[in-house]
Amino acid sequence: MKILTCGLLCLLSTFACAEDASILPNAPKPNLKPKTAIVDHVLMGVDVGMRWGDVVTTRQFMLSECHCNHEMNPIAPHTPGWGEQVAFQMGMAAVVYEGSSWLRRRGHRKLARVLIIADIASETWAVQNNARLK
After folding, report:
1. Can you give the residue range of the structural domain that contains 61?
2. Where are the beta strands (DSSP E) in 1-134?
3. Structural domain count of the chain
4. 114 pLDDT exceeds 90?
5. Does residue 126 lie within any of the structural domains?
6. Which of 25, 35, 80, 81 is the most buried (most CB within 10 A)?
7. pLDDT category, 38, cuts 50, 70, 90?
8. Is residue 17 part of a domain?
9. Angle at which helices 2-17 and 109-133 pack, to 10 degrees?
10. Any long-range contacts for 17-26 (C-beta under 8 Å, 24+ apart)?
11. In angstroms, rounded to a whole number, what is the distance separating the alpha carbons of residues 116 and 94?
């Protein structure tokens, strides 16, 4: 699931970095209401919370006495240090937020939310998997 999310993020980052800005068609500008912005901020807060849970549970299973569990995500740091784990997770959260913000600016509000919700689902899987391993 994390690999799928990372692939989606890479795909969106190529769209964001492309010189030709017409890769995705411009949707009509949405009439952003305050409730819409609140929902987006709450979703991003949930995503950051799940990523913080992933940091904590990953450290717990990496520091276990067994040493028989390993990080399954190939791009995640494979060390139990706080710095590496937090930097990776917050960097990925920033990538998701920027991808979502780019989609929202182009008028694709629903796609922007789908991106955040997919990342929340991926992190939920990771946290429950790590909690089961510790």
Report:
1. 2-11+32-133
2. none
3. 1
4. yes
5. yes
6. 80
7. confident
8. no
9. 150
10. 24/103, 24/106, 24/108, 26/106, 26/107
11. 11
Residue closest to 119 by CA, chosen among 33, 39, 2? 2
Taking every pair of C-alpha atoms in the chain, what is the biggest distance, in angstroms? 56
Query: 10 Å Cβ neighbour count for 90?
Result: 14
d(CA 84, CA 77): 6
> Each residue of 85-108: pLDDT tens digit?
889 899 999 999 999 989 988 888
Q: What's the token pair of residue 115?
A: 């991106």
Whether the CA torsion 25, 122, 75, 43 is positive or negative: it is positive
Neighbours of 127 (CB within 10 A): 20
Q: Report yes or no: 4 and 119 within 8 Å, Cβ to Cβ.
A: no
Exposed/middle/buried for residue 113 (C-beta within 10 Å: 0-12, 13-18, 19+):
middle
Q: How many CB atoms lie within 10 A of CB 110?
A: 11
pTM for the complete prediction? 0.70
Closest C-alpha to 36, from 90, 107, 99: 107
Residues 6+ apart with CB under 8 A from 117: 43
Q: Which two tokens stand for residue 12?
A: 């969106």
